[in-house]
Amino acid sequence: MAFEDLKPIVEGFEEENAPLIMAGPCSAETEEQTLTTARQLARGGVKIFRAGIWKPRTKPGGFEGIGKEGLAWLKKIKEETGMKVATEVAMRSHVLDALEAGVDILWIGARTTANPFAVQEIADTLQEAGATDIPVLVKNPVNPDIELWIGALERLYNAGLRRLGAIHRGFSFYGKSIYRNPPQWHIPIELHRRLPNLPIVIDPSHMGGKRELVGPLCQQALDMKFDGLMVESHCTPDEAWSDKNQQVTPEVLKFILSSLVVRSENQETENLQNLRQQIDRVDNDLLELFNRRMEIARKIGKYKKDHSMPVVQEGRYNDLMRSRVGEAVLMGMSADFMKTVLQAIHEESVRQQLEILSEQTDSTETEE
Ligand code: PEP
Ligand code: MN
Predict the structure, then answer these.
(1) Distance (Å, rounded) from C-alpha 256 to C-alpha 229?
(2) How far is the CA of 128 from the centre of ligand 2 (A)?
(3) Which of 23, 46, 159, 281 has the greatest number of CB atoms lying within 10 Å of its CB?
(4) Which of 166, 173, 238, 253 is nearest to 205 (CA)?
(5) Three-state DSSP string of the chain
(6) Which ligand is nearest to the CA of 51?
(7) What's the gap in Å between 150 CA and the centre of ligand 1?
(8) Is the CB of 110 under 6 A from ligand 1?
(9) Atom of ligand 1 nearest to the CA of 167
(10) Is 139 close to ligand 1, i.e. is its CB under 6 Å away?
(11) 94: Cβ below 6 Å to ligand 1?
(12) 46 Cβ closer than 6 Å to some ligand 1 atom
């Protein structure tokens, strides 16, 4: 499914050739907080206001959203500021309530995208309500599964929705990272390769999890030519009822947005072309080297088979990791990067060695 006949999320946004900016608090908490934030954002030039009305919290007991009551505040914001308003929906009743309140844009949260039943229910509800012209943005599922992400978009597309977009908010993980949800940029880049017409909005707030990462992540998003930004902004972030560490004031957001550099694509100088050619050559060399390494790994596989040795020898693997990662760090590369590369190479070597073992087993069987 190529999504060839998609329509713009918001009419006119593509002609403007500027990133689509959506901003607002993680949650609508009180009428005063929601309206104050909205007024400040509108003054700063933001045209799409976001606010969570129903909040999917990882654990019970936190603030689970103001619910329906907050929809009236969004309506007021629309009337007063002229901004479009957006909120998250996760089930049929949310969709119906949001439509009734005149919400302009819906998004599906990361936890909901991971649940095909819920996404189908949302798609069916929109179709049954005859509301297929409403824009729906689909956040990536919490886990780095591009098929699940595309699957959610397909469910909406099949229900007749054409104003579709994706929101990349990073993926949850187990372990340590400077990010709350590491970006794993190769996944949205692959999404763009597979669905070139689909606009992709970046959510630096849930990705970074802290205020100081919002600006740099916004710049990275633009440098990678993504189509928009969804940023959490709160009039008094320190007092926010949810996600307070990652929300910035409308004033800070205005500063961040005005400092962003939109790089033009037509600045390719000879110098850059030359550097790109060098990269192409190095990548070719790398391929050659990988191939040579795999050839040696296959020979080792044969040796291990002949001497009845196991394919994976832990001691050797640990020594190799330690020394290579140490050397890479001395050269200025990150330990995480080198570990990932070595693990991938090792996995491929093991796969090729297992292939050798099975080939030989087959031929021995036929000889007997
Ligand atoms: C949100 O946008 O407030 C939200 C809950 O985000 P996510 O679904 O990305 O966790
Ligand atoms: Mn949030």
Answers:
(1) 12
(2) 29
(3) 23
(4) 253
(5) CCCCCCCCCCCCHHHHCCCEEEEECCECCCHHHHHHHHHHHHHCCCCEEECECCCCCCCCCCCCCCCCHHHHHHHHHHHHHCCEEEEECCCHHHHHHHHHCCCCEEEECHHHHCCHHHHHHHHHHHHHCCCCCCCEEEECCCCCCHHHHHHHHHHHHHCCCCCEEEEECCCCCCCCCCCCCCCCCHHHHHHHHHCCCCCEEECHHHHHCCHHHHHHHHHHHHHCCCCEEEEEECCCHHHCCCCHHHCECHHHHHHHHHHCCCCCCCCCCHHHHHHHHHHHHHHHHHHHHHHHHHHHHHHHHHHHHHCCCCCCCHHHHHHHHHHHHHHHHHCCCCHHHHHHHHHHHHHHHHHHHHHHHHHHHHHHHHHC
(6) 1
(7) 18
(8) yes
(9) 9
(10) yes
(11) no
(12) no
pLDDT in tens, 212-253: 999 999 999 999 999 999 999 999 999 999 999 999 999 999
Does the Cβ of 169 fall within 6 Å of ligand 1?
Answer: yes
Which amino acid is located at 164 in the chain? L
Cα separation, 22 vs 20, whole angstroms: 7
- Using the mean position of ligand 2's atoms as its centre, give its distance from the Cα of residue 231 in Å: 9
Nearest CA to ligand 1 atom 8: 109
At position 228, the amino acid (one-letter code) is G
pLDDT tens, residue by residue, 118-172: 999 999 999 999 999 999 999 999 999 999 999 999 999 999 999 999 999 999 9
Q: What are phi and psi of 194, to 5 degrees?
A: -75, -35
